[in-house]
What does this fold into?
Amino acid sequence: MVYIHVPFCRSFCVYCDFYSEIACRGRDDGMYGSYLDGLCEEIRLRRRETAPTSGVNTLYIGGGTPSVLPPSAFGRIVEALGCGPFDEFTVEVNPEDIVEKGAPYVRELMKLGVNRFSMGVQSLDDGILRWMRRRHDAGTARRAFGILREAGAENVSLDLIFGLSQLTPEVLSGTLDGICELRPEHVSAYQLSIEEDSDLAAMVSDGRYMEASEELCALQYGRICDRLRSAGYMHYEISNWALPGREAVHNSAYWTRAPYVGFGPGAHSFDGVRRSWNSCELSGWSASEEVLGEAEAREERIMLGLRTARGIPASWCRPEDVRRCFADGSLVTVGDAPSPGSAVCGECAVAVPDGLSARVRIPESRWFVSDDIISGLI
Ligand code: SF4
It folds into this structure.
């Protein structure tokens, strides 16, 4: 599992606090060249870490906005890694780049082995997109999706953002209807968060923006769940939906704590015990790390596993906690009705319905409050 961070964007979105440099036309080549030189050198120095250790053979190039890069840059990255082809090779793209560069650009990436595109659409409402300071409008997003399909992309994920105070039910429904009409293989929907160093944080603190209430966010999340379910999408992780068989392989592996290696300024790596990350700067390089103890690893396994529809073995939690959560409906057994029956799990002595495994999960109706549930289990 390899992740590459591309730290360039054409402009900054209002809510974003990721490390990224402004990619200006005309100055691109020199800046990309220095970045690629550094990235390839980092890959060379850490080559031993790219040996597959988890059986997950994926490459994810994210950002920033990787689609500002020319195809030759992706070629250099693939060549430096020297470990393809990948079962899943995802590149994050922005709609305006795809419309500007067209189907030939997409085909060039596919020739290099890219077989999945993740596009940041965020909304299909022009007013919301302007407020977010996105560079595309809804028409551009639709055209970009058409170009991906025209070029032969068969696995496309679209990102949405909810949790805005100005997002009315009508506007959200319009976006969801539009997404369902496009019918991507995968949809991610993330709740807007106010990141400390973002422009949005300044707008909140000086009163130019009022945050959405938790109740409103929960309503919007519920609408997304309902609309995507009715369109045949499986809700397999708190923020992710897929048509059957189209779950993201790379991201799903993160939720099982599979080892991964990340290259680039903002990338993180994890070898199963030690988590490390690069300094978030293009100039100069340094790395930091933390080693997780057994107690922290257990907490992380529970936290990540309970974000998913697969859930976790009940035996990872204290039996009294599982019984309490069964009783109040915040945990259910995987694969069947929520009511615990008379059978008792041999592993953990927790009552589970007859004939079912002792895997447990948070039901979709409680996913919005999963943080509270999980904190009571770890
Ligand atoms: S949200 Fe994405 S496109 Fe927008 S500034 Fe951040 S990294 Fe760049």
Summary: DSSP finds twelve helices and 19 strands in the chain. Residues 9, 12-13, 16, 18, 20, 63-65 surround iron/sulfur cluster (CB under 6 Å).
